[in-house]
Structures are given as C-alpha cells and as structure tokens.
Write a structure and sequence with these properties.
- This protein is an alpha+beta fold.
- The protein has 3 helices and 4 strands, in the order H-H-H-E-E-E-E.
- It has 2 domains: 55 residues; 67 residues, no CATH class.
- It has a 4-stranded antiparallel sheet, with helices on one face.
- The longest helix has 28 residues.
- The radius of gyration is 19 Å and the shape is globular.
C-alpha cells in the first residue's frame, strides 16, 4: 500500500511539475514542487514534489522583451572582451567581464563577450540569455 502511494505520488508530482513548468508562477522550485506534491499526495507527495520542483525550478525565466530590445540596441563597449570559457546560460560570467545594469530594469544587466550580447543577473552574474 505504501509503495503504491509513493509511486502514485511520484507520478502525480512529475506530471504536475511539468504543468507548473509550463505556467508562469510566483511559487517555483523546490517550494512550489513541495506544495504541489502535498496537494496531490500528502506528506509523501510533498517530499517527492520538492525534489521534482527543485529540478524544474532550475530553469531560468526569459527576461522581458523590453530588456532584450535594450540589450540588442545598446552601444557595444569600446574594449572587446574575449574569454576562453564558453558563455553558457545558467553559468556565471567570469569576474573579469564587466556587466552593465539595464537602466529601466536593474534586475538585469548585460555584457558583450566573445562578440555575443548576453543578459545576466547582476547579483550572481549568471547568464540568463544569449542574444543571437
């Protein structure tokens, strides 16, 4: 009985986490998965949902279109920045790269690295999007 409940809760949490991933929600990650799991499967579902939500919660929401447009149109710095590391969404930029805050939305910043414009989270320097 318990194993059937765990399997059922895991299945429900997995299905619900996919729905949560597709929606824009203020509750995400492990906390959101735990809430969803608790609703579906009680305490066991909360544990399973928390794990599933943590995996789904690592996805990065894209920035608003006005931020993307600003980065596309902003003047490139005069000094060319080249780094050996590949610029990867979800990974921080090296400390040697200067990031410039977005004036109308300070929750985002940008940089031009290896001739690519990237949008980053200023506090962590994590790459949110690479503009092609």
């Amino acid at each position: 009985m318990i194993s059937r409940l765990i399997v059922g809760a895991a299945t429900a949490a997995t299905l619900m986490s996919g729905v949560a991933f597709a929606q824009s929600s203020t509750v995400n990650g492990a906390a959101g998965g735990a809430v969803t799991g608790a609703i579906v499967g009680g305490p066991v579902g909360a544990a399973v949902g928390g794990v599933a939500g943590a995996v789904v919660g690592t996805a990065i929401d894209p920035p608003p279109q006005k931020v993307i447009t600003y980065v596309q149109e902003a003047p490139a710095p005069s000094a060319r920045v080249v780094v050996k590391e590949k610029v990867v969404v979800g990974q921080p930029l090296p400390e040697t790269v200067v990031v410039t805050p977005i004036p109308d939305d300070p929750t985002y910043a940008y940089a031009v690295v290896n001739d690519e414009r990237v949008i980053v989270e200023p506090s962590s320097r994590k790459v949110i999007q690479v503009i092609k």
